[in-house]
């Protein structure tokens, strides 16, 4: 894993606005412990900013069950 693998939340949302709303992402972040997003290694919080590991997030997302 490298720093280049991470994107700020704002950049992530801008690049994927056709798929996710800001409210969806905020909900996932708030519930990251119960929805598995934390365990997936898809998020890092540093200096009061959220960073997404796109590869880990994608893996988490495609494994979600309805």
Model description:
With 66 residues, the protein is α+β, with helices and mostly antiparallel strands. It has one domain (3-62). It is 44% helix and 18% strand. The protein has four helices and three strands. The protein has helices at 9-15, 22-30, 32-35, 54-62, and strands at 6-8, 43-46, 49-53. Strands 1-3-2 form a three-stranded antiparallel sheet. A hairpin with a 2-residue loop joins strand 2 and strand 3 (49-53). The longest helix has 9 residues, at 22-30. The N and C termini lie far apart (29 Å). The model has no long low-confidence stretch (mean pLDDT 95).
In short:
This protein has one domain (3-62). The protein contains 4 helices and 3 strands.
Q: Estimate nothing, just give the exact number of structural domains.
A: 1
Residues in β-strands, percent: 15-25%
The gyration radius over C-alpha positions equals 11 Å
Give the count of helical stretches.
4
Topology overview:
Elements: E1 6-8, H1 9-15, H2 22-30, H3 32-35, E2 43-46, E3 49-53, H4 54-62
Antiparallel strand pairs: 1-3, 2-3
Keywords:
alpha+beta, three-stranded antiparallel β-sheet, 3 strands, globular, 66 residues, 4 helices, single chain
């Amino acid at each position: 894993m490298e720093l280049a693998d991470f994107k700020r939340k704002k950049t992530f949302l801008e690049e994927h606005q056709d798929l996710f709303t800001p409210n969806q992402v905020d909900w996932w972040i708030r519930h990251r412990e119960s929805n598995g997003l934390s365990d997936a290694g898809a998020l890092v919080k540093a200096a009061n900013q959220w960073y997404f590991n796109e590869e880990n997030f994608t893996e988490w997302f495609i494994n979600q069950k309805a």
